[in-house]
Design goal:
Structural class: mainly alpha
Shape: elongated
Order of helices and strands: HHHHH
Radius of gyration: 16 Å
Strand content: under 5%
């Protein structure tokens, strides 16, 4: 393990403290990409990444299952809006 300076330790600590907000922002980007996707193959890859992000955010499994079964960007966007509101 390398030795980190105090400055580096603070940056690492801040990153992990903000990880949920970072993941929500990334999920926001994925929703935007989903709306712009022009092929089914690309949409499938995006939904796979979205599923992984939802699991990493520890979203309730029943809700993850519902979102993944519906595969509707509007449902995902509505839930994401709620999560972003509660994260502030």
């Amino acid at each position: 393990m390398p030795e980190y300076s105090e400055h580096q330790k603070r940056i690492i600590k801040d990153y992990y403290r903000s990880l949920d907000r970072i993941m929500l922002a990334r999920l926001q980007d994925l929703v935007g990409e989903l709306y712009l996707a022009d092929s089914d193959k690309k949409r499938d890859r995006l939904w796979t990444r979205i599923h992984k992000a939802l699991v990493n955010l520890k979203i309730k499994p029943a809700l993850v299952e519902h979102i993944m079964e519906a595969r509707d960007p509007k449902i995902l966007a509505a839930n994401l809006e709620d999560w972003l509101r509660s994260a502030k």
